Amino acid sequence: MLFVAFLLSLLFLSAAGADSTAYEVLQSFDFPVGILPKGVTHYDLDASSGRFNAYLEGSCSFSLEGSYQLRYKSKISGYIHKDKLTDLSGVSVKVFFLWLNIVEVRRNGEKLEFSVGIASAEFGISNFYVSPQCGCGLNCKTSDDRLEMGNLRTNPLVSSS
Fold first, then answer.
1. 5-25, pLDDT tens digit by residue?
2. pLDDT tens for residues 20-42?
3. 61 φ/ψ sector (left φ>0, alpha ψ -120 to 50, else beta)
4. What is the rounded CA–CA span in Å between residue 88 and residue 100?
5. What is the CA radius of gyration of the chain?
6. Which of 20, 34, 98, 161 could form a disulfide with 24 if both were Cys (CB 3.0 to 4.6 A apart)?
7. Who's near 18: CB < 8 A, 6+ residues apart?
8. What pTM value is reported for the model?
């Protein structure tokens, strides 16, 4: 029994990498780092199931291009597989006057499709090469983070699942 526990812990460490960041793990599953905001303090990943948890110091919210408000709880969880995040919890988007939970993200070539269950929207992957910062998103006014980003090319949340 002890050997099985040891073997499982080795599997966990080899998949997550002892020194890998949450952002590097995202990239290993073919996702860009920018789907997580800056400031992930730690994460855990069950390599056998793909179950993950990522932790921020606290809740986090920001606007992207002035049109989308995003909110991350201090714990983000779900399942990660190549090109697919499912059963997400801890991430929501404001659509009109409602906060809707983002429950799934799929990579389709050079696009990411975000689903809130009853509707989805696609965005070019180039919009997610840089992680947004809590509070100011991609529009932070610091000398280190002066970014020239293109307009967030969107297809509004209108397609039904």
1. 333 333 444 444 557 899 999
2. 899 999 999 999 999 999 999 99
3. beta
4. 12
5. 16
6. 20
7. none
8. 0.75
Query: Residue 107: which of 26, 37, 41, 17 has the closest Cα?
Result: 26
154: DSSP letter: B
Quickly list DSSP for 50-110.
Answer: -EEEEEESS-EEEEETTTEEEEEEEEEEEEEETTEEEEEEEEEEEETTEEEE--EEEEETT
128: three-class secondary structure by DSSP? helix
DSSP code, position 137: B
The Cβ of residue 135 has, within 10 Å, a number of other Cβ atoms equal to 12
The more confidently predicted of residues 63 and 142 is: 63
Q: DSSP letter at 136?
A: T
Cβ-proximal residues to 159 (8 Å cutoff; 6+ apart), any chain:
119, 120, 121
Q: What is the CB neighbour count within 10 angstroms for residue 33?
A: 19
Task: Let me know the angle formed at the C-alpha of 132 by 157 and 100, rounded to the nearest 5 degrees.
Answer: 30
> Hey, what domains does the chain have and what are their CATH numbers?
2-160 (2.30.240)
